[in-house]
Design goal:
single chain; 438 residues
């Protein structure tokens, strides 16, 4: 009986090459699995391509709803970023793909799961850790870590030599990953950090900012417990909400990120990410938190958010730490309910107002006009207590300075007295000498 291998199949260059390679190197049957996370894809064509290339079967798993609700929203509620810029589009998708692969492998009784992540990339870590956490008994096959192919050009030649269709043009060989949340681009001119990206050629859902409309657009987003639920007053499910904001943000050039990031494996890499809807949501969500969270909670949440971004980026989704961080974030979101209005203009997002029934902003206190809840005279005592350590240190330094000056003066005086005594003694000696001699 042939070994059955489940392959994470995207229809792109890497996974298209992997099908014939697996058949040439293993006595196996390949069950291809495409995970639909909202990427722009012709699934009928992709499925046929997998079968034409040698797969025994190919299934399309629609996981968009689960992706948004179980993976994207937790990252959004945390405002989790990696290295201050990356909105974790690929990072949040990989653990769910691993979960879908494991579920299918168990259904078809496969012995192994294969994926097309490279030996230099982050995705191999995310896939492997996800599979290990959910199905430690399954073998993991990652051809990029074992085959002799060294480049995308060699992959194209591999297919051409076997008269198999190449799913891309040579001149457009960016390495891309896309889903409902984002599109990532790597390769070509991006491999030189000194070169400006060719946005007109590269971008798929975002207008270059300089070509965006000259008239701004205003968007109002409603949130319930940190989760976006409406756009411009219209209730929407998560998938349609993101699609709507992708369109609006994309038209106005919002959400283009060019970053040189530190990969999990230790090297730096450069990528350009398109995350128009996500950029709008992150900004709006943070504006609402500024209104609804107290200072101490917000400050600690920033620390937790940074750590969660690192955990998700590093493929540690199925871990106690990720679960604990997410639980903390969920607790902070109980009052993050309200609406935020933002302005989109030539690649930028700016605030145009926010409101919440849980707002901690109190006009009676904050206004320059003295309200009944605030007495300006109270500030004196508060400042004295708040700055007590500063005052104590200043008094210590002042006292220390006086003592140091006094000690210095004493040493100087003692030195001067000694010199005078010596001179007087010398005069007396001379007098005696003169007297004796006389």
């Amino acid at each position: 009986m042939k070994k059955k291998i489940v392959l994470a199949y995207s229809g792109g260059l890497d996974t298209t090459v992997i099908i014939p390679w697996l058949k040439e190197n293993y006595d196996c049957e390949i069950a291809a699995v495409c995970v639909d996370l909202g990427q722009e894809a012709d699934w009928k064509t992709i499925k046929q391509r997998a079968l034409n290339t040698g797969a025994l079967s190919c299934v399309i798993a629609d996981a968009k709803k689960e992706y948004v609700e179980k993976y994207v929203w937790p990252a959004l509620k945390a405002n989790a970023l990696y290295e201050d810029k990356y909105l974790l589009g690929t990072s949040t998708a990989r653990p769910l793909i691993a979960k879908v692969l494991v579920d299918h492998a168990r259904r078809v009784k496969a012995a192994a799961i294969a994926h097309g992540a490279t030996g230099k990339g982050n995705d191999q870590v995310r896939f492997d850790l996800g599979i290990m956490a959910l199905a430690p008994e399954l073998e993991i096959i990652a051809p990029w870590r074992t085959w002799t192919i060294k480049s995308r050009e060699e992959e194209i030649s591999y297919l051409e030599e076997r008269n198999l269709p190449v799913p891309m043009r040579k001149e457009d060989s960016y390495s891309r990953d896309d889903n409902l949340w984002h599109i990532s681009h790597e390769g070509l001119e991006l491999e030189d950090p000194a070169v400006e990206p060719v946005l007109d050629r590269m971008l798929k859902m975002t207008t270059p900012p300089e070509k965006a409309p000259s008239k701004p657009a205003y968007v109002e987003i409603g949130f319930e417990k940190g989760i976006p639920v409406s756009v411009n007053g219209k209730k929407m499910d998560g998938v349609n909400l993101i699609l709507t904001l992708n369109k609006l943000g994309g038209e106005h050039g919002v959400g283009i990120t060019d970053i040189v990031e530190n990969r999990v494996v230790g090297m730096k890499s450069r990528g350009v990410y398109e995350t128009p809807g996500g950029t709008i949501l992150y900004y709006a969500h943070q504006e609402l938190e500024h209104l609804c969270l107290d200072r101490q909670t917000y400050a600690f949440k920033q620390t937790a958010s940074q750590k969660l971004g690192e955990v998700i980026y590093g493929g540690l989704w199925f871990t106690p730490l990720r679960e604990a961080l997410t639980a903390f974030v969920d607790a902070t979101q109980e009052t993050v309910t309200g609406t935020v209005r933002v302005k989109l203009y030539k690649g930028t997002v700016s605030s145009a107002g926010a409101s919440s029934p849980y707002s901690l902003y109190n006009a009676s206190i904050a206004s320059f006009t003295t309200g009944e809840l605030f007495n300006h005279a109270d500030a004196k005592g508060f400042i004295r207590l708040y700055g007590l350590s500063t005052l104590v240190r200043a008094l210590m330094q002042k006292d220390f300075g006086k003592r140091k000056a006094a000690a210095k003066a004493g040493i100087a005086g003692k030195g001067k007295t000694g010199m005078t005594d010596k001179a007087d003694h010398g005069d007396k000696s001379d007098s005696k000498s003169r007297g004796v001699a006389g």
